[in-house]
Amino acid sequence: MRELFQTHEVFNQSPPFQDVNLFTTDPALMDAVERAGAGHAAHQLSRFGATCGSAEALETARLANDNAPRLRAFDSRGERLDVVEYHPAYHALMEISIKQGLHCSAWEHLADPAGQRRAGATVARAAGCYMANQMEAGHQCPVTMTNAAVPALLLAPQLAAQWLPKVLTRSYDKTLRPLAAKAGVTIGMGMTEKQGGTDVRANTTQALPAAAGGPGAEYLITGHKWFMSAPMSDAFLILAQAPGGLACFLLPRVLPDGSRNALRFQRLKDKLGNRSNASSEVEFAAAHAWMIGEEGRGIATIMEMVTATRLDCAVASAGLMRLALAGAIHHCRHRSVFQKRLIDQPLMQQVLADMALDVEAATGLAFRLAHSFDRAIEPKAAAWQRVMTPVTKYWVCKLGPGLGYEALECLGGNGYVEEGLSARLYRELPLNAIWEGSGNVMALDLLRVLQREPEALEIVLDELDAEIGGDAPLRAHFERLRSLLTEPGLLDSRGRDLIEGLALLAAAANLRSHAPAFVADAFIATRLSAVPRRSYGQGLAKANTRAIIDRALAA
Ligand SMILES: Cc1cc2nc3c(=O)[nH]c(=O)nc-3n(C[C@H](O)[C@H](O)[C@H](O)COP(=O)(O)OP(=O)(O)OC[C@H]3O[C@@H](n4cnc5c(N)ncnc54)[C@H](O)[C@@H]3O)c2cc1C
Fold it and tell me: What single string gives the DSSP state of each residue in 328-384?
């Protein structure tokens, strides 16, 4: 009977892309980490790379996405439950990332009152996130937010003293218990309301002081949030209108006495991608929260968190692009068409190499940004962080969807089928550009630097000027950018020209200084010197495409 159905032999299909070390097969990543001062972490990153690329982890990721979280708003008797249930696979992914310290490792020096910031800590963490996103992107949302909440929490010393010790453990504790009983905690963020996500000044959620009010004091929060991801986090940093203006609050899910805080989850978003992660609509009915910073300083306070998440958006998008590319290269190395492997077909070589140029450029920029976070006490690094956070987030995240699509097409029909990785990546890739400040908002942020901190932009331009030296195409691009800065009307209509121009310059200069010549030459020739293209695979006839591809996915 069994033999009746054995009609054919399956051949010429690429084996699954799994049991791959996501660190040691990625020379561009290893170089970026070394360059940005975290070479000391190479050994542990290599171990983590093997974990993230293992067949077991990738299967866990599939399960977490095929079994999306569910809201249980009420129990069978009509009592409110307000819990979101996740598949065990999601919790397993959280365990992996939290054990690696991706939610806290950049802050572990805070556990020791005399502790100094550890050299390369942000970069090493970013490398972990780059690979963890390749393992599975959705669970990285609470991981990212927890890490990013720390600088905001530090503005409220009393709250920080209570919460930080639990953030800094590498223990994942999914239980719904008060802080004192938890082995470790995660922290989410609630800014976006129905009437506005960018324009948070329009927030209508109200905060009334429970007693005297003021920094660190207790308030009662009433209102809603339209997107609040990772709703099972232990606390959220939220914005609400206090009597003295918009303020930032820490709102725990369980109160110190063990009772539930008044969060009413309305429903979960049915999202294009990012399906393992829950994103809720929530209402607060006089929920208890404690103020971080001052009344009227809410945006400045939560920006501490937002800036850190913007770095993670860039790192995540670079990682996701790298996985899309690696999957495409892997497939083309195994698949033959017309008696020749796809990897040996000249047109395919150009497509793959062209994508690899963007991935290396994006990775380089993202890790240079991470490096500036590590060194932000130095004025040059602080200027890079301020200027290049919106620039890097904008450019790297915008590359993602187009690259994801092209990589998917390399797999032909298999790329379009949900069982493979490409479809999930394709649905995931637009997200990093949207949250934490969408494209135009990043351009506007750069223009804000121009208006309010022009000296920071000058420092960055001086650094790039010195770096590009006499390289003719880079110099010509630099001069174009300089003249753009003097154009009338720049602030009204040329924001995207400026942000893209600066990103391209920085990406190219970074490659010219640090990448092999076959990468830098091809990137500069196709992105800075040639006619604009609309798709990948053009202008690389003379490039060493084989070397570029082999660097993108080393054996
Ligand atoms: C999956 C997912 C999860 C999310 N999780 C969270 C979360 O946990 N917490 C949270 O607070 N939010 C969350 N968000 C919300 C997200 O941060 C917002 O959607 C985002 O900030 C944009 O806000 P908005 O949707 O209100 O769009 P709008 O602010 O209305 O913006 C719409 C568009 O207009 C553009 N725009 C805005 N202002 C200008 C301008 N002045 N000039 C030109 N263009 C402009 C924007 O770039 C954008 O493209 C999540 C979103 C998604 C998709």
Answer: HHHHHHH-EETTEEGGGSHHHHHHHHHHHHHHHHHHHHHHHHHHHHHTTTSHHHHHH
pLDDT digits 0-9 by tens, 262-316? 999 999 999 999 999 999 999 999 999 999 999 999 999 999 999 999 999 999 9
Evaluate whether 276 touches 64 at the Cβ level (below 8 Å): yes
Q: Which atom of ligand 1 is nearest to the CA of 434?
A: 20
Residues 6+ apart with CB under 8 A from 377: none
Q: What is the pTM of this model?
A: 0.98
Task: Give the number of the atom of ligand 1 that is nearest the alpha carbon of residue 438.
Answer: 47
DSSP, residue by residue, 43-58: HHHHHHHHHHTSHHHH
Residue 423 CB partners (closer than 8 Å, separation 6+): 408, 415, 416, 417
Encoded amino acid at 349, one letter? Q
Ligand 1 mean position, distance from CA 252 (Å): 24
Q: How far apart are CA 511 and CA 249, in angstroms?
A: 42
Element (H, E) at 106: none
Supply the pLDDT for residue 529.
81
Place of tokens 């040639």: 530
CA pair distance 99, 171, nearest whole angstrom: 6
Which residue is closest in CA terms to ligand 1's atom 26? 197
Q: Return the SS3 of 240.
A: strand
CA atoms within 13 A on the CB side of 468: 22
Please say whether the beta carbons of 250 and 159 come within 8 A.
Answer: yes
3-state DSSP assignment of residue 188: strand
What DSSP letter does each residue of 145-172 carry, written as one string?
A: HHHHHHHHHTTSHHHHHHHHHHHSS---
> What secondary structure, in 3-state letters, does 469-514 show?
CCCHHHHHHHHHHHHHHCCCCHHHHCHHHHHHHHHHHHHHHHHHHH
Distance (Å, whole) CA 276 – CA 1: 40
Q: Where does the pLDDT of residue 348 fall: very low under 50, low under 70, confident under 90, or very high at 90 and above?
A: very high
Atom of ligand 1 nearest to the CA of 436: 17
- The residue that leads in pLDDT, 550 or 486, is 550
Residue 440 Cβ < 6 Å to ligand 1: yes
Degrees to nearest 5, angle at CA 275 with 269 and 280: 30
pLDDT in tens, 90-142: 999 999 999 999 999 999 999 988 888 889 999 999 999 999 999 999 999 99
The residue behind tokens 């001086």 is 462
Nearest Cα neighbor of 335 from 358, 318, 352, 322 is 352
Query: Look-up: residue for tokens 């805070």?
Result: 110
Find where tokens 């196709």 sit.
526
Q: 323-356 as b/e, with b when 16 or more CB fall inside 10 Å?
A: bbbbbbbbbbbebeeeeeebbebeebbbbbbbbb
Residues 6+ apart with CB under 8 A from 345: 337
What contacts 24+ positions apart, CB below 8 Å, involve 1-8? none
